[in-house]
């Protein structure tokens, strides 16, 4: 395969007692074992000198990319019933590939009843990096039940697969409403 090997030199003619350097390069773009032959002729020599060159290229071991994420939620432990509150969702890429196309879906439940829900598209997160998004939860006071906390469930989804789910509880404080005060 002469196309796999390239021979370069600056040797047009060599004086007796002198030397010349040759450089051989090998094309390693395709897997396989390749053989080439270099023929050197010398003035006054009856036969040329043959040099056989062999080069082997193996396919690199490619580790498949993994798409994993860590999720940490933080926010207030208690809020006045009916007031908006924010939950901070910190997503960390713990896989080996860039984490793109991820949707953060959330649902605020009280008991089994969904009180509020939504979703956010996340920007691509580089391996080992994190991204924090705020989830704004607004539940009207009239939809809340006294004595039951609101549980916010957050799920990271990529290509219809769940990467991570975390939950966060917020206690609702019911005080007297303005119309109850006299």
Descriptive notes:
This protein has 182 residues and is an all-beta fold. 0% of the residues lie in helices and 52% in strands. The chain has no helices and twelve strands. It has strands at residues 5-9, 22-26, 32-40, 49-57, 69-74, 78-80, 85-93, 102-110, 113-121, 130-137, 150-158, 161-173. It has a five-stranded mixed sheet with strand order 6-12-11-8-9, with no helix packed on it. A hairpin with a 2-residue loop joins strand 8 and strand 9 (113-121). The protein starts with a strand and ends in a 9-residue tail after the last strand.
Short structural summary:
The protein is mostly beta strands and 182 residues long. The protein is built from no helices and twelve strands.
Spell out the key features of this protein.
182 residues, mainly beta, five-stranded mixed sheet, three-stranded antiparallel sheet, 52% strand
- Which structural class fits the helix and strand makeup? mainly beta
Strand content: over 45%
How much helicity do the residues have? under 10%
End-to-end distance: 98 Å
- How would you write the strand order of the largest sheet? 6-12-11-8-9
- SS element count, helices: 0
Number of strands: 12
The helix/strand series, from N terminus to C terminus, equals EEEEEEEEEEEE
Report the sheet with the most strands, covering strand number, pairing sense and barrel closure. Answer: 5 strands, mixed
Unreliable spans? none
What is the 3D shape?
Answer: rod-shaped
> What is the CA-atom radius of gyration, in angstroms?
35 Å
Task: Summarize model confidence as the mean pLDDT.
Answer: 87
